[in-house]
Design goal:
The protein has 10 helices and 19 strands. With 369 residues, the protein is an alpha+beta fold. It folds into 2 domains: 284 residues, no CATH class; 44 residues, no CATH class. The strands form 5 sheets. Strands 1, 5, 6, 11, 14, 15, 16, 17 and 18 form a 9-stranded antiparallel beta sheet that branches. A 3-stranded antiparallel beta sheet has the order 2-13-12, with no helix packed on it. Helix 8 runs antiparallel to helix 9. The radius of gyration is 25 Å and the shape is globular.
């Protein structure tokens, strides 16, 4: 029995604007445990380190700390489509670069990434992006459907841009920063035992000794994690309003088939919890004491919020059926083409890179992983 139409109300202009998930998380050590958020390089007045924003007008120390960004969460979710039981839902497109094979699901800019552009897929992708500009996303869905789910910007060529349908962010509230210190002790007192000469005032030699582990090296006052006194929360959204902007040209039947396929992929990605292990010192799980605050709802244009009963299993069942009807694109493994890369760098051929400079926030920013 077909269940293809079970989520068609999501594809109707009168349907919900989005699906929203809110989950209370905590470190495995407990709600008062220390966790390590992501750290960021300095720039544009930001000193570097943890991204902690003090709330305007908050004199009590209220703040919000970014634990895992939208891009980082996409990094963790998208590669699921290279694994069982999800890999049959999308074409497995792999570029062999030297001894390494890179699945397009791992490429930072997805279908717009340099490693894909500089391969035999260049013309196919260029034509697919040109079709997007003409209102037909079907060709791109045949080769890189997750680019329609997580967003893509072909900023180095056609300038075609598709919004992110699935977004997820983890934040901690009212955090208290900690610092940590460490001391490296060499296995032998190399200088004292006259195994090595005293470096004296030679800064270069001292640095080399330290880097190679021959002398004591203190590390003080470095990032020591945070304690989230206000809790940790994952906020995720699946934009159904943006999904309804996808078309397969003017063909109504093909458009419905395309939207069902992308909806299936989006639901599978959306219902998988990507918290868990984020980095060293940051292993998060659901907080059972705050389970009553968790939400999974349909949010309608009038603000009405209706609880959703979609599960990961039902999403996968739907996605498999929608993929079978759409027809998943062909899997391909192609070599990285050095000659194409050199032409791309020089702005030769059909590429539109010549004379362009990357802008902050372009394909290296929000539309990337």
């Amino acid at each position: 029995m077909s269940h293809l139409n079970k989520f068609d109300h999501f594809l109707s202009d009168a349907g919900p604007a989005a699906l929203v998930i809110r989950e209370a998380l905590m470190p495995v050590e407990g709600a008062d445990g220390v966790l390590f958020p992501a750290t960021y390089a300095s720039g544009d007045g930001f000193p570097g380190g943890y991204n902690i924003d003090k709330l305007d007008g908050a004199d009590s120390g209220a703040n919000v700390c970014l634990v895992d960004s939208v891009g980082s969460q996409a990094n963790r979710i998208e590669p699921m489509f290279a694994e069982e039981p999800y890999k049959s839902l999308v074409p497995q497109i792999v570029v062999k670069a030297g001894e390494k094979e890179v699945n397009i699901l791992e490429a930072g800019h997805r279908a717009g990434d340099a490693i894909v552009r500089c391969s035999d897929l260049e013309e196919t992708l260029r034509n697919a992006f040109k079709s997007v500009l003409k209102g037909d996303a079907e060709p791109l869905a045949k080769i890189a459907p997750t680019s329609l789910v997580f967003g893509v910007w072909d900023s180095r060529d056609t300038q075609a841009k598709l919004p992110r349908l699935v977004s997820s962010t983890i934040r901690a509230f009212n955090v208290r920063k900690l610092t940590r210190s460490a001391q490296f002790v060499p296995a032998v007192e190399y200088v004292a035992e006259q195994l090595l000469e005293e470096p004296g005032d030679n800064t270069t030699t001292k640095k080399a000794y330290a880097e190679r582990g021959f002398i004591h090296v203190p590390a003080t006052g470095s990032h020591g994690g945070v304690i989230a006194t206000g809790g940790i929360r994952r906020d995720a959204a699946l934009s159904l309003a943006a999904l309804r902007l996808l078309f397969a040209g003017k063909d109504t039947a093909k458009t419905l088939t395309l939207r069902r396929y992308i909806l299936g992929l989006a639901l599978v990605a959306f219902t998988r919890n990507p918290s868990g292990y984020l980095r060293q010192g940051c292993l998060l799980v659901l907080d059972p004491d705050q389970a009553g605050k968790n939400q999974f709802v349909e949010v309608h244009p009038d603000g009405k919020r209706v609880p959703s009963k979609i599960t990961a299993d039902s999403a996968l069942e739907y996605a498999k059926e929608a993929a079978a009807v759409f027809g998943v694109g062909e899997a391909r493994t192609v070599p990285f083409d050095k000659a194409r890369a050199l032409k791309d760098i020089k702005g030769e051929g059909d590429s539109k890179t010549k004379g362009k400079k990357g802008k902050k926030g372009d394909a290296s920013g929000d539309q990337s992983k």
